Structure formats: structure tokens, C-alpha cells
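Researcher: We plan to redesign the surface later, but first we want a full-length starting point. C-alpha cells attached.
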């Protein structure tokens, strides 16, 4: 984990609206997943990069304490669908080959990023959703209200996340979903020197 000051260049993709409809007639699909956390309120992002164009996209959950200082003194709200603080994402991307290239946590002027390169391959297909997994952020140390240490896990939580995703994004329930991680896969200390992988990530289509 690196603590830095700076900005992120890329395209912030908002979640699709509840009435969004996937269509194989359109050259786009969805990248879906969840971000959960324990500890202080921050802005959590997962970074995705198109292999052909090198364009970076990101999904985000949370809020920087710079935006609302009063929230720094309040415990984070628990997402009822996930059972933890955090949220779900479903962002539209052009069809093609991608990599999950990292994560970013912003809290005030401080920003945390991986200390080592990460690259999880996945594909976006027209008219389909691809589940990327769950990124779980754990605050490991802090000074007063400021987070000083973070540990991240990327894991397959399809049993929890897919039913949860169908509620705010009903189109997922009626269209094919592909899974970017093999069942049970977990990357502990994701993006740090001590990163450890359990199971091998595979691209496994999931029949719906």
C-alpha cells in the first residue's frame, strides 16, 4: 500500500439506472461487483483498463471526508443487501478485453494505492454482465480520524452479490452473467507485497 497525494486520471462511470436494459444489439456490457469496507468513511475505487485503448475506467463507492467533514465523526452505514458498509456497482463498458488494474482509496487529501502492480483479466461482452468480485477494504491503523493503513482483499462473493445486484439492477436477473474469478478465489493483501492468491482466477460463463 502506498500513501500519496494526487489525482486520478480516468473516466468515472456512474452506475446504470434501475431501468437499464442489456441488449446484445448494442456493443456494450456491464462490469458488476461490490465494494465493502470496515473502518473510516472514504471514497473507494476499483480501476479497470481497456487492453486495446489503454483507457481507464473506475467504479466507486463511498465519499471522501473532504466532501462532508461531519461524516468523519459518524459510523458508516451498513448496506442491507451486503451486511457491511459499502455498495454495489454496475457500470457500462464497451465490449472488449479488460484488466482490473488496481484500487484507490481517498480520504481527505490522502490517497492510498497498491504498492505492486495487479492485473486481473476479464471480458465485457455485448448484452452481458461480468461479475468482477468483491473488493473488501480493512482499515488496519489510524491516527485520530485519519486512516494510516489499509489492507485489501479481492474475493469471489457471487452467492451474496449476484442476488443483491439484481435488486437495484433488474436487468442482471434476465441476462447472461459471466464470472471473472473462479469459484472460491481470494486474493489476500491484494496489491501489496504480501499478496497471496487462493485458487486460480478463470473466466467462467455462468448460465442463468
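Model: Full-length starting sequence:
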Amino acid at each position: 500500500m502506498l500513501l500519496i497525494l494526487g489525482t486520478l486520471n480516468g473516466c468515472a462511470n456512474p452506475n446504470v439506472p434501475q431501468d437499464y436494459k442489456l441488449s446484445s444489439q448494442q456493443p456494450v456490457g456491464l462490469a458488476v461487483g461490490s465494494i465493502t469496507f470496515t473502518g473510516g468513511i472514504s471514497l473507494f475505487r476499483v480501476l479497470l483498463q481497456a487492453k486495446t485503448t489503454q483507457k481507464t475506467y473506475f467504479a466507486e463507492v463511498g465519499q471522501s471526508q473532504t466532501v462532508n467533514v461531519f461524516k468523519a465523526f459518524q459510523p458508516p452505514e451498513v448496506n442491507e443487501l451486503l451486511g457491511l458498509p459499502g455498495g454495489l456497482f454496475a457500470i457500462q463498458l464497451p465490449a472488449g478485453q479488460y484488466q482490473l488494474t488496481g484500487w484507490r482509496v481517498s480520504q481527505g487529501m490522502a490517497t492510498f494505492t497498491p504498492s505492486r502492480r495487479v492485473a486481473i483479466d476479464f471480458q465485457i461482452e455485448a448484452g452481458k454482465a461480468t461479475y468482477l468480485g468483491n473488493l473488501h477494504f480493512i482499515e488496519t491503523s489510524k491516527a485520530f480520524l485519519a486512516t494510516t493503513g489499509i489492507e485489501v482483499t479481492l474475493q469471489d462473493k457471487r452467492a451474496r452479490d449476484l442476488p443483491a445486484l439484481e435488486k437495484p439492477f433488474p436487468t442482471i436477473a434476465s441476462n447472461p452473467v459471466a464470472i471473472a474469478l473462479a469459484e472460491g478465489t481470494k486474493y489476500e493483501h491484494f496489491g501489496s507485497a504480501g499478496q497471496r492468491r487462493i485458487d486460480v482466477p478463470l473466466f467462467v460463463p455462468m448460465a442463468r
